[in-house]
Amino acid sequence: ENFVDKGDAPKKPPSFGEVLYRTLSRETRLRAFNKSSGSYETIVQRKIATSLPSVLSLSCACAGRKEEDGLFVWRGNSMGQDHWLPEKVEIAISDTGNILVSEYVQELDSGTGRWVTHGKDDAISNVVAEILAKRKGHSAQ
User: Fold this and answer.
1) What number of CA atoms fall less than 13 Å from residue 19's CA on the CB side?
2) Using one digit for the tens of pLDDT, what is the confidence trace for 56-114?
3) How far apart are alpha carbons 28 and 127 in whole angstroms?
4) Strand 99-106 and strand 89-93: pairing?
5) Burial track 50-85 (b if 16+ CB lie within 10 A, e otherwise)
6) How far apart are CA 41 and CA 34, in angstroms?
């Protein structure tokens, strides 16, 4: 995602947890041909994680189209920290199949820390959550 607006003024940099959440739960709108209507229709393609690896390796190459697009994020700070990468990150899949990314944020001024969670537990519809639950049940047997 581009973090520079159309007027080339930098936006507030997202936190690492926000970027990781958007990457793991990406949604794309596509046009697909519908045979029954004989026309193209918009569909939504969504990444849905069904399991997580014990070790997750991330590519941190984010230079973007122009040098400043991605480097802006790395150079800045977010959420009151002096660095972009959090001390700790946790990724979980909820019972309904939604991705939740939590990052430990240490406040610069007070030195206190807190967990911030990105994602919501209703991003996947109930129908899709039920299908995922059935698949998990079949694979566990």
Assistant:
1) 20
2) 887 665 555 665 555 556 655 665 566 778 888 999 988 778 889 999 988 777 878 88
3) 19
4) antiparallel
5) eeeeeeeeeeeeeebeeeebbebbeeeebbebeebe
6) 7
